[in-house]
Specification:
By secondary structure, the chain is of the alpha/beta class. It folds into two domains: 239 residues, Aspartate Aminotransferase, domain 2, CATH 3.40.640; 102 residues, Aspartate Aminotransferase, domain 1 (Alpha-Beta Complex). The longest helix is centred in the last third of the chain and has 21 residues. It is built from nine helices and 14 strands. The protein binds pyridoxal-5'-phosphate.
Length: 357
């Protein structure tokens, strides 16, 4: 029996996508082989990767002067690739809104000067800090944000006002809400939250920002190399890109990103409304910065939290334990989590509340 999987990543994939992959597992089209066994230089595979790129462009409305790349090394490799490729003055501004932004800043510091313009560490990253432009660098190569903070459950609803090139880690919110690509110089996302299986990382980068990497940058870390070779410089993660393509076809069938955003808002509201009215559970994030994708909550009692996680698991709601640095619970409700999954979770939480208060 398939469970409702609230994992922060790797996370649920649409069942239709898994079934389609299953149907095509041993024989893809007329090729007589699986996608895993196929040359990445073959016509069949070329169609797959070209379609994947075309779907990203269509669904995210990517302007023509941006490259769409499928890379390896996870979102974490982008923490190094971004400074290595974008640093001309060797200076960048970072907003520290959680573990992933912190790690990105630490990695960038190996190569460039990093200015931490604001942080919400004082309150366990439970809000998005207000920014004071006076703290911004005058000559920053880029301004870095983590758009949706997977661990703490916050997200930006207003983008920072800066003249610098805006760079965002959108690993946990890509295609969950409409994002205006033209406002950014670079966006990246590891696939394993909203786009497909682990192993492929989506990078969307403006043309003029590539081709200037720092001396000594490894070939595989140079955006220009991947852009010139249409993400086929070396063997790409072929199967992961194929499943990502199936996920994007599913996104399109759902009506695209704007339609999914409506559903995601509905799902998140259901859970937040319950948390705000509950006598037992409460959300940990200030209302104005709440994520649509990752919803942390607590009872305030560690033993009761553990009991909840255990009983939820027995009832078919799995991976609700919060990140080890926050404790409590976290429900990750990415695109593939059906409305019904959240409805049933809320019903289960109400029952648990009645029994434990
Ligand atoms: C999961 C996650 C990462 C790390 O991704 P990897 O692919 O494991 O390197 C980075 N940033 C955010 C926002 C994430 O959610």
């Amino acid at each position: 029996m398939r469970v409702y999987n609230f994992s922060a990543g790797p996370s649920m994939l649409p069942l239709e996508v898994l079934k389609r992959a299953q149907d095509e597992m041993t024989e893809y089209g007329k090729s007589g082989m699986s996608v895993m066994e196929m040359s990445h230089r073959s016509k069949d595979y070329d169609d797959i990767i070209k379609n994947a790129e075309a779907l990203v462009r269509e669904l995210m409305n990517v302007p023509d002067n941006y490259k769409v790349l499928f890379l390896q090394g996870g979102a974490s490799s982008q923490f190094a690739m971004v400074p290595m490729n974008l640093a001309r003055n060797k200076k960048a501004d970072y907003v520290i809104t959680g573990q992933w932004a912190k790690k990105a800043a630490q990695e960038a510091e190996k190569y460039i000067e990093v200015n931490r313009v604001a942080s919400s560490a004082d309150k366990t990253f439970s809000y998005i800090p207000k920014l004071d432009p006076a703290s911004f660098s005058k000559d920053a190569d880029y301004f870095y944000i983590c758009y949706n903070n997977t661990i703490y459950g916050t997200r930006y609803t207003l983008l920072p006002e800066t003249d610098a090139v805006l760079v965002a880690d959108i690993s946990s919110c890509v295609m969950s809400e409409v994002i205006d690509v033209s406002k950014f110089g670079l966006l990246f996302a590891g696939a394993q939250k909203n786009l497909g299986p682990a192993g492929v990382t989506l990078v969307i980068v403006r043309d003029d920002l590539i081709g200037n990497c720092l001396p000594g940058t490894p070939t595989m870390f140079d955006y220009e190399i991947h852009a010139k070779n249409d993400s086929l410089y070396n063997t790409p993660p072929t199967y992961a890109i194929y499943v990502l393509k199936l996920v994007l076809e599913w996104v399109k069938e759902q009506g695209g990103v704007a339609a999914l955003q409506k559903i995601n808002e509905k799902k998140a509201k259901m859970l937040y409304d319950f948390l705000d009215s509950s006598k037992l559970f409460k959300g940990t994030v200030v209302p104005e910065d709440r994520s649509l994708m990752n919803i942390p909550f607590v009872t305030g009692n560690d033993e009761l939290d553990a009991k909840f996680v255990k009983e939820a698991k027995e009832a078919g709601f799995v991976n609700l334990k919060g990140h080890r640095t926050v404790g409590g619970m976290r429900a990750s409700i990415y695109n593939a989590m059906p409305v019904e999954g959240v409805e049933k979770l809320v019903r289960f939480m109400k029952k648990f509340e009645a029994e434990n208060i």
